[in-house]
Amino acid sequence: MRFLHTADWHLGRMFAGCGLLESQQYSLRSLAAIAAELCPDAILIAGDLYDRAVPPEDAVQVFDEILVQLAGIAPVLAIAGNHDSAGRIDFGRRLLRQAGVHIVGSSRDGIERVDLADAHGPVSFHLMPFASPEVVRCDLQREDLRSHDAATRARIEAIAPAPTSGRHVLVGHLFAQGGDETKESERDISVGGVSTVDPSIFAPFCYTALGHLHRPHFIGLGRVRYSGSLGRYSFSEESHRKTVSLVTLDAVGGVHVEEIDLPQQYGMRTLRGRFLDLLSSAANDQRRTLDLVRVVLTDPLPLPGAHEQLRQLYPLLRGFAYEPPPSVAVGGPASVLPEFKQHNEHSYIRHFLAERYPDSGTASISDLAHICMEKALQQQERI
Fold first, then answer.
1. CB atoms < 10 A from the CB of 76, how many?
2. Which of 58, 156, 209, 296 is the most buried (most CB within 10 A)?
């Protein structure tokens, strides 16, 4: 049996004040094209369908459109993640099953099981949406469940019939121990500092399709996997390769996974250096209008107008910061400053800039400092 494993769509996500829905649609069209070409037996979406519990209307419309496309190719098995509202995801759940869409927001009535068959017999998919330990305690009437690990273990033990024989696949949304975090992108799900789940509890399953962590990777020996997110959602993901996982189960439950690239509408990168150097290199930058860009200036002093000039060159500028050299950040020797206190204020400024920022060489900064000092002196005289 072959199925596609994807997760963490985060439809409706905002990035640096700008919506990402258009770029998400771009990747979803590619996903639909991949599914149409491969004709898998199922398509799994392991949580975080939306970016927030009450998604914007246009994000809901995009999700509706992609579900129609994918359900016309293969059964769709989807669960809620920690960004989703379990109750809202559950709406229409029973009706959608009739269209081959198994979308599960909560598991208060137990972990839903979907059986699909290939030439070698049935494969059982167990759909386990995200649930906090508090919710699981209520669902299972177990006051002893105080961590994600204990709650997940109890939910798996409650699966009936138990996945002790045959081919079983678990679809979940959680933080497995040993997973590779992308902290700028992923919302913390810890409760009392205990958020990780021991991956050994997934041993009964031939394959565990996980969501929550945004980089595609395996946990352990190749049967527990994060598919990664649909797109890049922070600059900490700029080096990530975004893919969908094509999983093949053989007759005895052996697993083979192939990563298929998900095209992105925009690239993403960080530009680091001095302002004048970045200005000069922009002329030869073939992708300056194609990438989401973060600029980190290493000039010793903030430069008036630098952000606006760079934004005109890089229209997709989404981050801007200063990181001066360490010698500047900690300041120069304080012992040389007192000897200038006998000079007038403007003389002190000249010596201060020469001592602290010897490489600045920017007359406008010196002029600005002198103007500010002059205004301060005038204010002091009025007082």
1. 24
2. 209
